[in-house]
Every structure is written in C-alpha cells, then in structure tokens.
Design brief:
Structural class: alpha/beta
Distance between the termini: 34 Å
CATH architecture of the largest domain: 3-Layer(aba) Sandwich
CATH superfamily of the largest domain: Thiolase/Chalcone synthase
Number of domains: 2
Number of strands: 13
Helix content: 25-40%
Number of helices: 10
Bound molecules: coenzyme A
Amino acid sequence: MTSTAISGARMLSVGTALPDKVVTNHDLEQMVDTSHQWIVERSGIHERRIGGSTSGLAAEAAQMAIERSGVDPASIDLLILATTSPDRQVPATASTVQELLGLRCGAMDLNAACSGFVYGLIAAHGFIQMGHSRILVIGAETLSRLTDWTDRSTCILFADGAGAAIIEKTDGPGDLHGWHVDSNGALEEALFCDFDDKIQMAGQAIFKNAVLAMENAARKSLEMANLSPDAIDLVVPHQANVRIVEASCKRLGIPYEKASMVIHKTGNTSSASIPLALEDAWTQGRVNKGDNLLLVGFGAGMTSAAAVITWDGI
Ligand code: COA
C-alpha cells in the first residue's frame, strides 16, 4: 500500500468523557463465572465505566477539547465522529453531536472499529490540506449496549467513553510525519456484531493478529516519518489488553514504560481508547511540545492504523 506524507495541521487540544457508573471486576464476579484475579492477569482491566449515549459522551469530550483549545466553535469546518456504536443507524451520530454542540459544519461518522480515531485524525489532516481550517475529531462508544453480559469472554473487556481532539491548520509543516492505515477483511468472523445482536469474538485469534497488526502499522508510519523506534517519546496504543501492548512494544523495541495506559480504569472503549490514553498522559504532564508520539490502534475488520506526530498543541 502506498501513502504520501502530508503536512499543514496540528493537534491543538484533547478532551474526554466517561460515564459516572463504575463496574468493577468484583461486580462482574456476581454476573458471570469469572474472578478479579483472572481478569487482571489476562487483560489488565480492574474496572470500567458504563452508561450514557454515544452522542452525549462525544459532545461532552468535544466541549472539553474546544474549551481547552480556545478556538471559536463557529470556526470549526468539520466534525468526524469515529464510532462503532452510533445512537441510531440513520442519521450519523455526528449530526446529533453537531446539534448538541451548536456547530454549523460538515459532520460524518467513521467506522474503522477500534482504529477509528487514528483513521479520523489522518483524514482530518487530509481535509485540512484540501482547504479546511479546523476539524473536530471524536472517538465515542457505548459498547455496553452491544455487550452480552452473560458472556464472560467479552463482557469483562468492553466499556463506554469518549475522547476528542481539535485539529487546526498551521503555516508550518504540521505535526503528522508518518501514517499508515490497513484492514484485513478475511478476519471478519473473529470479531463482529450483527444488527440487533451482541459482540462475538474469537479472543485468541484477535490477540495474535493484533500484535502483528500493531507492529506493522507502527513500523510503516515510523518509516514514513524517517524515525527509529527509539525516537518515540510516548506510545499511545489502543487499550484492548495490557499483554497486547506489552508484546507490541517488545517487538518494536520500545520500552513498555513509554506507553500511556488507561485500560485498568476504562476497559476497552474502542474508538475512544486512544484519545482517552492521550489525554491521560497530557494531564499527567507526559506530553510536551516537541515530543514524538506514536498513536497506534487495531480492531475488528481487522483494521489497524498508526500516526507519528510531534506534539505542538497546548
Ligand atoms: N474468567 C475466567 N475464565 C475465563 C474467562 C473469564 N472472564 N474468559 C475465558 N475464560 C477461560 C476460558 O474458557 C478458558 O478456559 P479453558 O482453558 O478451560 O478452556 C481459559 O479461560 C483461557 O481462555 P483463553 O481465551 O485462552 O484466554 P486468553 O488468555 O486468550 O485471554 C482474552 C482471553 C479475551 C482476554 C484475550 O484472548 C484477549 O484479550 N484477546 C484479544 C481480544 C481483543 O483485544 N478484542 C478487542 C479487539 S479491538
């Protein structure tokens, strides 16, 4: 697959939203045959947040990102909402979010499963190269609606949340130095959710392919950025399983300590997980101007996406 380097945009700010309701592993012990110890050892998850609507969480995260950026909401040209759990089949939940925020701009949903936020980020840089000035990219999910709460192999993993970022045109070369998007539809049956049904997953097949897909997407984007793995200051990975991130970092030769992890408190929030992990690192002071960040995700489909950006935001 060929990709060309793009320029001219930077991520200004990030914002997040999580539902109030906390579901701990001990709560799940009351619902299915599992244990806190098993869930922690096999996934790294201690608790997750459940509740709200995809549009409501998306709007809350977006409002925070807008306020932090200081941009005039009226100047936003486009809203891209990455989600696999829209409020409705039609219209796009992005239009609902647009109305909740009082924006007047283009709005669309983007479904690339858990890679969606990175796909949206890359698409936003492309739209800016074609003339837009400010774009709101959101990843938001209410996976609890798609989860079978009697299936112990999936209900321990999935949860709800949202993260958002403001992408703005800049005179300089921009913050995106390398990117890669991919999909392997042959693996569709490993993770899917039919209409009016719940998520079904072959966990081990996903695990194995996820590690390879993360490594491949990361290597391709680093290659485009002309950077070696040791030039990365912070890895912002999709939060599906601590062991997947550990294995991917090991294969890339990047210390696991450089990864921003929130899965212990959020579970797997699909499109929301990367902006949630990015915002968490930012609030902890782990994201500073000039830092090289590797955002990398994988998901059903089996999609993968990575972006190497140099932080030039607030
Ligand atoms: N509690 C206790 N035992 C459980 C369990 C649970 N919640 N879920 C499964 N088990 C059991 C299995 O039935 C199996 O029992 P058996 O050996 O008697 O057959 C045993 O634990 C091992 O199951 P296995 O599926 O091999 O575990 P695992 O180490 O692969 O971990 C996952 C399971 C789901 C945590 C792991 O495969 C995973 O994270 N896969 C990737 C999923 C993912 O990332 N999905 C989202 C993609 S975006």
